[in-house]
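ok so i was messing around last nite and threw this chain in just to see what happens. nothing serious, just curious
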Amino acid sequence: MKKLSGMNISKIAIGSDHAGFDYKTKIVRYLNERDIYVMDFGAYTEDSVDYPDHIHPVAEAIEKGEVELGIILCGSGNGAAMTANKHAGIRAGLCWTAELAQLTRQHNDANILAIPARFVSESQAMEMVEKFITTPFDGGRHLRRVEKIRCS
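result:
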C-alpha cells in the first residue's frame, strides 16, 4: 500500500448523491489503499437520492471530531457544498482542479472538499483528493481571515 506524503490524515468522511456515487466508490478504494479509514455515508447506489441526506452526516462527523476531513460529491458540487457549509465550523470548498483543492486547504483551511462529479474527469477528481489530503493549512495571514468566516 502506498502511503501519502504530507499530512498524516487517518480518518475521512465521505458522502455523495447518485451523481457522485461512481467517483465516491473509487475515492473510497483509493483512500483505503493508503491506510486511511473512511466513514462512508452513501449514496450506496446510482438510484436517485437527496444529497443533503448524505452530506449532513459528513459535516456532523467533522463537527464531532470523528474524522479530520470530509469529501462530498454531487452533480455540480454546489448543493453538497451549500449543505455542508450550513454547519458551524465547516469550511467546504467547491473545487474543479487540483490547484484549487490545494489552495482551499492552504489558504482557507477547508475541512471538506466538494467535487462536481458531472464536471470533472475521474483523474481530475483523484488529483483533487490527493492534493486536498496532503496539503496543510499555511496559517499566518490566512488564519486571521479564516477566523472571520464564522458568523456565530
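not much to say yet. The helical segments are 21-32, 52-63, 78-84, 98-106, 122-134, 141-147.
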